[in-house]
Amino acid sequence: MQETISIERRAFKHLGSRTKGDKVIWAVVLMLAMISLLAVYSSTGLLAYKMYKGNTEIYLFKQFAFIIVGVLIIYFAHQVNYIIYSRVAKILFLISIPLLFYTLFFGVKLNEGSRWIRLPIINLTFQTSDLAKLALIMYISRLLSRKQDVIKDFRQGFLPVITPVAIVCLLIAPANLSTALLIGATCMMLMFIGRVSGKHLLLTISISMVPVLILILAAVIHHKSGDIVPTKTKPEAHSHLFVRVDTWINRVENFMYGDRTAKEDDNYQVDQAKIAVANGRWIGLGPGNSRQRNFLPHPYSDFIYAIIIEEYGLVGGAIIMFIYLVFLFRSIRIFKKCPFAFGAFLALGLSFTLMIQAIANMAVNVNLFPVTGVTLPLISMGGSSFLFTCMAIGIILSVARNAERIEGEPAAEGS
Questions:
Q1: Residue 109 and residue 163 in one domain
Q2: 171, 188, 203, 393: most buried by Cβ count inside 10 Å?
Q3: Does residue 363 lie within any of the structural domains?
Q4: Residues 175 and 316 in one domain
Q5: Which residue range forms the structural domain that includes residue 65?
Q6: What is the pLDDT of residue 114?
Q7: E strand or H helix at 114
Q8: What is the pLDDT of residues 202-214, one digit of tens each?
């Protein structure tokens, strides 16, 4: 027995010696993974009981498998020199464009939108927007690092950078408007840090706000008219590309006016999330004691933060926020330490992506933002989004690993 424990300790010590990069980010990953296991197991009990005839641990084992695969992805991704990612960035971006087109017209339709494609043989689905988001951040980081000398020029600097952002966002928006807006916001922040002209950014933001303002105006007009927009429509009745417009109007209207316009249970998700947050109070009901998991749709993905607050209280919710802030702070530290522009932009852009997604998910759960379909990074139940999040973290750690190596070379030479 003692010999087995000794072998395990040596194995972990060897793995630890092989693990490089920011140790705090590694700790953040492990903490979020443990929180994910607890939250997913608690929120999927009833679903597992119904789907698998009483086997309530099935989703726990699946999530554990996703975490193992995700950690392996992080490990192997961080072992790759981040310069390699610069070389493959353009290829991945060019691959993602036809995939987005295919998803838009022929993708698997869930909740009236095409967001997924089904992989042959293994018969699994994944969101092409996750791949496109990762590829876009890598490609934008590459462009910003190469065009610093002409970045203030509209034609030579700004247009080549903003064009791929516009293409990706326009292809994602018809089926997943919230993800398109979050990607656009991330790219705007990255371009601002990359010294893109402020007037060019303001022009872009002004243009992109036009459809958002039209959507808000449509929600206001619909509220005043008192007409009922159906929550579920037949695809034949609408253009394929704009089948979710009714859903967008409903969500914005319900967020602005609340229960006063709730028809056909439009506000059901928000109401159940509010009850979960109210139940949690300061310290929560305790692990596994959530009540709203039996009523709240998607308590294991989109609304998992509400379940965490119900079980661990506002204190637990604040701890989750603090962990994400620590992750962002350490990523900014990597950005400052990295001697090369591409690595610095890459680490910051990917961290912004994950942080904005986390903020959006938490804001939806506490009714500070209209309902979206974004998950909570590294906590929501595993899927393609979980694995691509792990890939992004692995790339950030790759930048940190190489920055530490370069920083340590002069000291080694001096000694």
A1: yes
A2: 393
A3: yes
A4: no
A5: 28-79+264-415
A6: 53
A7: strand 113-118
A8: 999 998 888 888 8
Structure tokens, 94:
């060019």
From 230, 262, 294, the end of a domain falls on: 262
Same domain, 227 and 128: yes
Least confident of 136-150, 312-326, 361-375: 361-375
Write the DSSP string, 50-106.
HHTTT-TTHHHHHHHHHHHHHHHHHHHHHHS-HHHHHHHHHHHHHHHHHHHHHHHHH
Phi-psi region of 195 (alpha: psi -120 to 50; beta: other; left: phi over 0): left
Beta strand pairing status for 125-127 and 108-110? unpaired
pLDDT band at 261, cuts 50/70/90? Answer: very low
Please provide residue 122's backbone torsions phi and psi, each rounded to the nearest 5 degrees: -80, -15
Is residue 259's pLDDT more than 70? no
Domain count, the chain: 2
Give domain status of residue 20, yes or no: no
Residues 237 and 321 in one domain: no
Q: Which of 18-32, 110-124, 304-318 has the lowest mean pLDDT?
A: 110-124
pTM: 0.85
Q: How far apart are CA 150 and CA 155, in angstroms?
A: 9
Residue with more model confidence, 251 or 325:
325
Please choose, from the candidates 164, 99, 74, the residue with its C-alpha nearest in 3D space to the C-alpha of residue 354: 74
Identity of the residue numbered 110: L
Same domain, 315 and 256: no
- Among residues of the chain, what percentage have pLDDT more than 90? 44
Q: Which of 302, 349, 373 is nearest to 138 (CA)?
A: 349
Helix %, strand %, coil % for the chain, to 5? 75, 5, 25
299 and 191 co-located in one domain? no
> Which of 262, 280, 298 is the last residue in one of the domains?
262
Structural domain contains residue 5: no
106 and 62, same domain (yes or no)? no
Least confident of 132-141, 237-246, 363-372, 383-392: 237-246
H or E element at residue 384: helix 384-414
Instruction: Give pLDDT, residue 365.
Output: 92
Averaged over 117-124, what is the pLDDT? 68
Task: Assess contact for 406 and 339: CB atoms under 8 A.
Answer: yes
DSSP classification of residue 218: H
